[in-house]
Specification:
The complex is a heterodimer of chains A (215) and B (273). Chain A has 215 residues and is mostly helical. In chain A, 41% of the residues lie in helices and 1% in strands. Chain B has 273 residues and is mostly helical. Chain B is globular, with a radius of gyration of 19 Å. Classes of the chains: A mainly alpha (215), B mainly alpha (273).
Chain lengths: 215, 273
């Protein structure tokens, strides 16, 4: 059990240094930021594969940790860095098997402190998106992906005309922050949550004309 | 016991009710929510949380621990031994410990000071085991002592105000391999994960929703869940490391959610799917 007195002695020191007499002023935003960082570090511990380093924030995580959007320049920086970091699929093969894609979309497993490190992760897609019409148990945090390929005019995903939407979709799955700096969606490729083959299967689920998504 | 039997039987109907609701979902969008609400209504007369309330009340009055004392002199913020209305004002600042404490961390302080238990040892105990199971039962009873009252957390002490601001920062803190924060799921109204409605915890989400519903009995796993366990499992699903029991982050989040819920009617201990 940690003691939040330590947090506040930190704040008290900061305030005394400020040379303020009673009534004590409220801590500044910067002091509260520092207290939050100290609190996060003292409140958690390693368990299984979920180590404390998961609290270390990279730029998009740090910039998107408030109820305010970051400044325009930061948004641009996050998006351009994310786009530049995308790994394109080996051999230019974007599409796998939609049936496997459906299984990956259904599975929400992986990466918790109870999970084994070597176990394949699910995509948790249905947690937030409607995808096929048959699955009624879907979340609404993200937009509906039903008819994803159809509404984008993909009749032959292997045609040259379909290339831009394939590339767009690959980027969205690999690093969602490339198009929306503070997207709620995980960075499935960038964070190595899904393999290239798993991503190809998800791609097929969304874009294959035979997939239930496009019926 | 009879009520519990009814609840158990009703619990086995969960699948049916859900399936029926699902079957209608395409025709009428809100029938899923309605179906679940109807199911909860069915269970209200026989919430197994009653068993934990009864256990908690007995534990409160029983002489226990190395000092062979009861908890009847425990001060939950409204004076020693005052149990009515304490829950809807927690977490709050306590002068004796010089900390902001939630219900469960305050219970640990009382169990140590009055009964001689080792609070740090209890905090390390797994949920549902040993003295931790007793803390959950006590919290369940004490929540019930404020049933029907409205959330009204104090913000008069500087530490209470600071914990609100820190709790807000923790709520929006993104991390881990999936970039999740509390706000990912609980930052907007009208969202759900799969079929589960998600309360917007950045404001008052309504009577008996979110902070004003826990502790709650969970039918799906047959367990009594305290707010500490609710937060612990949220962090697990966020793919965060393990939050210490009654750690500062859990208490700061309690202040943030509780203050935001000001005016919401507490229905705790509630019953959940």
């Amino acid at each position: 059990m940690t003691m939040n007195n330590t947090l506040f002695s930190f704040a008290a020191v900061a305030l005394v240094v400020g040379g303020c007499a009673a009534p004590k002023p409220e801590p500044t935003a910067q002091q509260l930021d520092a207290m939050t960082q100290a609190m996060m570090k003292s409140s958690f511990s390693d368990k299984g594969i979920a180590k404390l380093d998961r609290l270390n924030q990279d730029l998009p995580q740090k910039a998107c940790s408030s109820d305010q959007m970051p400044a325009h320049a930061v948004v641009e920086q996050i998006q351009s860095q994310a786009l530049a970091s995308v790994q394109w699929p080996d051999g230019g093969r974007y599409l796998g098997d939609w049936k496997s894609g459906e299984k990956i979309a259904q599975s929400g497993r992986g990466q918790t402190w109870n999970d084994a490190a070597d176990r394949a992760n699910g995509g948790s897609c249905y947690n937030c998106h409607q995808i096929s019409k048959e699955e009624l148990s879907y979340g609404t945090i993200g937009p509906s992906l039903y008819h994803y390929g159809k509404t984008r005019g993909v009749s032959d995903p292997y045609s040259a005309a379909s290339a831009p939407i394939l590339q767009y979709t690959w980027v969205k799955l690999w690093n969602s922050k490339a198009y929306s700096a503070c997207s709620n969606m995980p960075r499935f490729g960038h964070e190595k949550l899904l393999t290239q083959d798993q991503l190809r299967d998800i791609m097929a689920l969304l874009l294959d004309p035979k997939s239930p998504v496009n019926q | 016991m009879k009520k519990w039997m009814i609840a158990a039987a009703a619990g086995s109907l969960l699948g049916c009710v859900t399936v029926c609701a699902l079957a209608q979902a395409s025709g009428a969008a809100k029938s899923t929510t309605e179906g679940i609400a109807e199911y909860r209504k069915m269970l209200e007369d026989g919430n197994p949380a009653e068993l934990y309330e009864a256990k908690g009340e007995a534990l409160w009055k029983q002489k226990r621990g190395p000092k062979n004392a009861s908890l009847e002199q425990c001060d939950l913020g409204k004076g020693p031994g005052v149990t009515k209305g304490a829950f809807v004002e927690l977490p709050r600042y306590f002068a004796d410990t010089k900390r902001v404490q939630d219900l469960e961390s305050r219970l640990l302080s009382c169990m140590q000071a009055l009964q001689g238990f080792d609070a740090a040892q209890i905090a390390k105990t797994a949920f549902g085991k040993g003295e931790m199971a007793n803390v959950t039962a006590l919290a369940t009873w004490l929540a019930g002592e404020s049933r029907g009252m409205r959330m009204n957390l104090p913000q008069s002490h500087e530490q209470e105000r600071a914990m609100y601001q820190i709790g807000k920062r923790a709520f929006y803190y993104r991390g881990g391999p999936m970039d999740f924060a509390c706000s990912t799921c609980h930052g907007e109204s009208g969202k759900r994960v799969r079929l589960q409605d998600l309360p917007n915890l950045t404001r008052n989400p309504g009577d008996g929703v979110g902070f004003a519903a826990w502790p709650a009995y969970r039918v799906s796993n047959g367990q009594m869940w305290s707010m500490q366990l609710r937060l612990n499992d949220c962090f697990r699903q966020q793919r965060f490391p393990y939050p210490g029991f009654a750690s500062d982050v859990t208490i700061a989040l309690g202040v943030y959610m509780g203050v935001n819920a000001k005016g919401a009617e507490s229905i705790a201990p509630a019953i959940k799917r």
